[in-house]
Amino acid sequence: MQILLNGETRALESDATVAELVESLGLAGRRIAVEVNEEIVPKSEHGGTRLTEGDRVEVVHAIGGG
Amino acid sequence: MSDFFQDSPLRIAGREFASRLLVGTGKYRDFDETAEAIAASGADIVTFAVRRTNLGQDAGEPNLLDAVPPERFTLLPNTAGCYTAKDAVRTCKLARELLDGHNLVKLEVLGDDATLYPNVVETLAAAETLIADGFDVMVYTSDDPIVARELERLGCCAIMPLGSLIGSGHGIQNPYNIRLIIEQAEVPVLVDAGIGTASEAALAMELGCDAVLMNSAIAHARQPVLMAGAMKKAVEAGREAFLAGRMPRRQSAEPSSPFAGRINA
Q1: Which of A26, A32, A64 sits opposite B25 (nearest CB)?
Q2: ipTM strictly over 0.90?
Q3: Which CATH architecture fits B19-244?
Q4: pTM
């Protein structure tokens, strides 16, 4: 299946969870936040949240700013 | 602060802070310089931005939150770069998730790229939504006292008018408006944006601001760490001068030494 990840199309195994996506990006355990279709997915729910075709996923982190 | 004088702490949304200088984390050479400058500034509250993670990056790449650990500082996520209330609200929710439920945010909704002037219509809408969702909102706004009053009425926990345009270093262009905002406000007022050098930070505090927020003035100084220390002193000096109360201005001179006892009398 395909999802839109940080604005770019990405192929993903069907039924992948948010936790599996984060793991595949090498971001497990990092200070990030995840939003799917404009709704926050709390860390505690990454393992239980399955992604579906066409989901719009945002993965963000803190950067320098004023 | 002097040994003989203990100021009351800065109080924002029920939290107390010793430092009245808030600093940003943008525009530094690297995270080492960021951490050194923040240490020299003595700031307790440190603001940062939220952006898409660069995917495919080296997983060992340093993270801002390692340089500025949330255990040591009160991290203040901002909504810089947001031009609509909707984007600002989404950004705040992402930040709250990023910081494990921490709900203090700096709301800024911008109007255009050239001025980075706040869009107060979108700012008011975002503030209302965020406050209803349980956020404590410190709000960047114009130096319009009526807008400031409206933001406070909505429940913002700090009003942060610009001194001049973000990153301009033009100081406080309308001190009379800043005074008007301070005089009517019952929540802390901070000048946020425009400070260029130490005297301008002192002026903000002498006007009666509760604190000052800055980034470029430190990060873009030739020696950022030195400037961070200068700003710490300026904010403390300005605060003490405000509390002490300046002498009245006079039209004519008045000697400091007595007339009586002069040798030519």
Answers
A1: A64
A2: yes
A3: Alpha-Beta Barrel (3.20)
A4: 0.93
